[in-house]
Amino acid sequence: MSKQAKLDLNGSAFTLPIVEGSEGEKAIDVSELRAKTGHITLDDGYGNTGSCRSKITFIDGETGILRYRGIPIEELAEKSTFVETAYLIIYGHLPTRAQLKRFSDLLTAHQYLHEDMKHHFVGFPSTAHPMAILSAMINAASCFNPDLMRGGDAGQFDDHAAQLISQVRTIAAFSYRKSRGLPIIYPKEAYKYTANFLHMLFSTPYEDYELKPEVVRALDLIFLLHADHEQNCSTSTVRMVASSHANMFACAAAGVCALWGPLHGGANQAVVEMLEDIHQSGDDGSKFITAAKDKTSGKKLMGFGHRVYKNYDPRAKIIKRACDDLLNVMHIADPLLDIAKKLEEAALLDPYFVERKLYPNVDFYSGIIMRALGIPTEMYTVIFAIGRMPGWIANFKEITDDTKSRIYRPRQVYVGPTLNHYVPLHDRK
Ligand code: ACO
After folding, report:
1. In the Cβ-directed half-sphere of 74, how many Cα atoms lie within 13 Å?
2. pLDDT value at position 1?
3. Looking at ligand 1, which atom is closest to the CA of residue 306?
4. 357 CA distance to ligand 1 centroid (A)?
5. What pLDDT is stored for residue 148 in this prediction?
6. What gap in Å lies between CA 45 and CA 368, rounded to an integer?
7. Residue 370: which of 197, 241, 228 has the closest Cα?
């Protein structure tokens, strides 16, 4: 017999089905609660709400586990690449050699933007944040795809997905070049995904950027570690927009906007800005820790805390190690890394952070790697968005493939004024 929860509501008994996930997560299915009882559930910030059933990513925040399609993030970080992992996330299994080649070829085939898109870049002021450009240009790219209709032809999904993953990287590089007043560098067919991005960012018309393997690998790892993270703010936004049957590019553009905020993807930029401020003020981090605990200071220890992880974020562990390795290989001594380590050490011993289970998240060390790679601070969240594209596409696919999927439409508990009436302007006080 299937498991049920019993609800006693003002003396009346109701039963609600219990749903169990493949890793033993349990949920009470309240989808018929309002119809049966006239009540809805209320959950500010959705901290306790499962919005969907998904087969893509599993997180156990209590023990610090993250798996894409069942495969631990540690194994993928060690053995896979971003492109292979993107395939895994989108299609649900590791690709065969032939499948991987086809996917890579599609990414290469779609890497160029329509030449007319270049005019759009000219219209942005040089002060424009690259996340604003990215979101606008993803939508603009959809205008050059008249057939880009949600679900239009299932056979086009592969092309659209590859186009989005490939072009978002070209758009990101172009927006950086534009913001610096530099000439645009086109992608090269011979380069692989991440190498090509570095080439478009840093080559000049006269000289190709020297692609050091450790640099390419470090950035590829950052993309891979960001590739999906189940129902976070931006992915939920993508699913929300997809549920209205908007096209894949429109959904991704909305995801970029959600990711931009400093409480989400924007935290990687905020972390480095925080570390720079601490460094410039001569503080070794201890004054900042005190301020971060004071709710009236308006400060938070950026890169710390997570809605789901109540343990060390497994991605942060991998990134911290990669950060140490990269800076060693590149012979870089970055004072911001020393400050970050001191902050982490102090926070992990401080009762305020311990009691609230606040640990470093993925953003705490990723910015220091990107700084070492010469990537400007305002591009950090863009890098996150490039990495997250496979996850958004996989979530979009899950919605569009589900013939039973309904438009996302939460309810609310109204707490505004009760009925009152229109007062003509001349009678108002
Ligand atoms: N510094 C200081 N205090 C913090 C921090 C922090 N970074 N994070 C949480 N807290 C405190 C809160 O003030 C709260 O204290 P209280 O119980 O005394 O009121 C308690 O810890 C619980 O925090 P919530 O805000 O309820 O946690 P929530 O799950 O809503 O938010 C979030 C999670 C947004 C990540 C939060 O921890 C935060 O703002 N961190 C800094 C920004 C950041 O690093 N964001 C990146 C997240 S990872 C990602 O999106 C890729």
Report:
1. 7
2. 60
3. 35
4. 10
5. 77
6. 30
7. 197
